[in-house]
Amino acid sequence: MKxxxxxxxxxxxxxxxxxxxxxxxxxxxPVTTAGVKGRLVEGAHGICMQADMLMxxxxxxxxxxxxxxxxxxxxxxxxTPGVLRLVRTMHAAGKLVAAICAAPIALEAAGVxxxxxxxxxxxxAVTNDIRSASLQDAPTVTDGNIITGKGPGAALxxxxxxxxxxxxxxxxxxxxxxxx
Length: 180
What we know:
By secondary structure, this protein is α/β, with parallel strands linked by helices.
């Protein structure tokens, strides 16, 4: 299996990054992190993460999917042409495209949500930007190769949904992590 790419932009919601990455690595799904603006990235609550690489160095064919953590970083993700190109390329190849919290606005901007069911952070600043998809009130929604999560409180479920997408045994991991 090729790695899953996780993008880090300044202001990312830390739990929406760490929980899914932790779950994927526990499931032995390889993960590579890429900084959108630099390798050292500060999250919404002052926690800094060191990305494995810069987004500009990403070769999409080397990955089985892309994950966008949300938070204040979501608007930067939405407004960065390189992010939108990566999302479009992964989607066109039928690979995983996942976003949580406000980050589905980047998927909308990339044009990959038309006719899909998604969830996102329930604030007008987010929901008003998602016009082509059917919004669902659920912690996570999987619609084909697109997985979305509602917000910070859904970060573990978002990670488990991604693991299930890759046909990993998430039930035993849920039990080991005291989540069932």
